[in-house]
Amino acid sequence: MTRLFLKRMTALALCLLLLVFASSCAEDETGQQLETIKIGVATYRSDDTFVASLCEDLENLVKEKENETGKKIILNVVDGKNSQSNQNDQVDTFIAQSYNVICVNPVDRTVAAVIVDKAKRANIPVIFFNREPVEEDIRMWDKVYYVGTDAKESGILEGQLIIDALKADPGIDRNGDGKLQYVMLEGEQAHQDSLIRTEYSVKTITAANIQMEKLANDTASWQRSLGAAKMRSWIDLYGGGIEVVLSNNDDMALGAIDALKEADMLEGGPIVVGIDGTKAALQSILDGELYGSVVNDARKQAQAMLDIGCVLAAGENPQERLRVVNGQYVRVSHRVVTKENAQEELDELLSPTE
Ligand code: BGC
Ligand code: CA
Prior knowledge:
Bound molecules: beta-D-glucopyranose, calcium ion
Largest sheet: 6 strands, parallel
Distance between the termini: 55 Å
Order of helices and strands: HEHEHEHEHEHEHEHEHEHEHHEEH
Radius of gyration: 24 Å
Helix content: 40-55%
CATH architecture of the largest domain: 3-Layer(aba) Sandwich
Number of strands: 12
């Protein structure tokens, strides 16, 4: 074997290696993409109903994308168990294992800069979702994206549900004093959706010239069992005086319904509304328990994350490749659901991703 031959073989081998591993746009002679895309997903906690359904959608969409593109996509979803230090370690592991994209549902959305810093140093794009970092942190690097919704819109639509319900049935003002006595179940205090949904649901109702009287408000951290516990204590205090239950999400609204049922106060009791349009919430609407909800479209958010992730992994610019991306933010719109369209929404939710 001549030295030249050896040199050529080495060069060829190197080229092949590069083709397979380095360039994510590498193609073989049939034009097929060769690489595997590794996507790491770090959730704030995996037992959150909304986040769990988003991750489930993501898994299904990944399978579909694999079939469509013939590409292998490794999706690794990890649970931060509500600890930012756990989550930082998980992100470190994704980086050490050379993931192509990291999706983060931050435990503490105020410290996203730490994650952006690490990812930028390793040149691994980051997609934050559902828990929105401050804009300054998103702007630290052009390979950082946020996928979520417009919290204000969800609050406005929740308020609209009450306006429409009162129009259809003035008896919701049960004591006929011209005001709606309400309680407010709030999500985590530091979550953008809690503050904004609370504010805009009430503002929307009062802007329609309906007087609101707050009996109580408190956080139940998005959770059904905590929502039920809060509602039990409010039932003890205000009994039949509660006319409206506004909840920042469906799980807590369903908790309130659990408590109303226990107290035998659901029938003829307060009107309860939530946000998310989860499967359990849609079923509850169909059962005539929850009055309505606002769909926080998990599947569309998962789709946006996957699309952006794949484009970034291929070293391309999502802003040029994807219509939905305008700047570094994607906000999926909401829609209301009541018994009129709950079955349709449920069918859609249960249908395979198309
Ligand atoms: C959802 C909640 C969820 C929270 C988690 C919100 O957007 O409406 O149901 O618990 O995000 O971050
Ligand atoms: Ca009243």
